[in-house]
Design goal:
Layout: E1 6-9, H1 18-32, H2 40-53, H3 59-67, H4 73-85, H5 94-103, E2 108-113, H6 117-127, E3 135-138, H7 152-161, E4 168-172, H8 180-185, E5 188-192, E6 212-214, H9 220-225
Parallel strand pairs: 1-2, 1-4, 2-3, 4-5, 5-6
Helix pairs in contact: 1-2, 1-4, 2-3
């Protein structure tokens, strides 16, 4: 039996609820467009409704069209830029904060996360993750095409932590892309299924199912000890 030496996490919807980031961004966008909206709270609520019933990557396009604000693509781009660069108001899931505290000093800890680097770094800063883990890899900084499911980040993480692949665990939420690479490399993989997660229904590609599924990070200790 191989002893686990390193536990590596995804961030969005694994360590914190990504929905709270979205609403934090919506508030920042509405505040930046105060001259275009009469009721900021209502505008945020409308964006939240669009998040659930439309392509979430087109929330601002749909909002602008729904409000009849403008046909100018520049407005949407300004909203997107504000969303991506705002200072988010987010916090760790309780089970994530407790788990990181328990694991600290017992295992090497890491974070691998996809997304625009400026956006993901803002989340890391807001959550205080840098003080809780040993290594952080923002896949956007590795270069085009090297985000998950590419194995580059996982190979680099194992190298930085100084552990072999079979002694690593990866904990994430999105079966659509998160587990293909670590599975292929021989990592143990764990999918955490959050009630409000965006990707709980994502279909795993061949080789992309996690070894274990849990509903709270409180259950991870037993899996690591197996």
């Amino acid at each position: 039996m191989t002893t686990i030496a390193a536990v590596i996490f995804d961030m969005d919807d694994t360590l914190y609820p990504e929905r709270t980031y979205a609403f934090s961004g919506f508030r920042a966008v509405v505040d930046s467009c105060a001259d275009l909206v009469d009721d900021p709270d209502l505008a945020v609520d409308e964006m939240g409704a669009l998040l659930d019933r439309s392509d979430r990557h087109r929330v601002f396009n749909c909002f602008v069209e729904q409000r009849g604000l403008s046909d100018d693509a520049e407005l949407v781009q300004r909203m997107i830029q504000t969303f991506r660069t705002h200072r988010p108001t987010i916090s760790l899931h309780r089970d994530a904060a407790a788990l990181l505290e328990r694991l600290r000093g017992r295992f090497a800890l890491g974070l691998i996360t996809d997304g625009a680097a400026v956006q993901q770094q803002a989340k890391v800063d807001a959550l205080g993750v840098a003080s809780l883990v040993d290594e952080i890899i923002l896949t956007d900084e590795l270069g085009p095409g090297l985000g998950k499911p590419h194995p580059a980040a996982f190979e680099l993480m194992a190298d930085r932590l100084g552990v072999t692949h079979e002694r690593c665990v990866y904990v994430a939420d999105n079966a659509g892309k998160d587990f293909v690479a670590p599975n292929a490399l021989g990592w143990k993989t764990v999918q955490v299924l959050r009630d409000d997660g965006f990707y709980g229904d994502a279909v795993a590609p061949p080789g992309g199912n996690a070894d274990h599924k849990i509903y709270t990070l409180a259950d991870l200790d037993a899996i690591i000890a197996e």
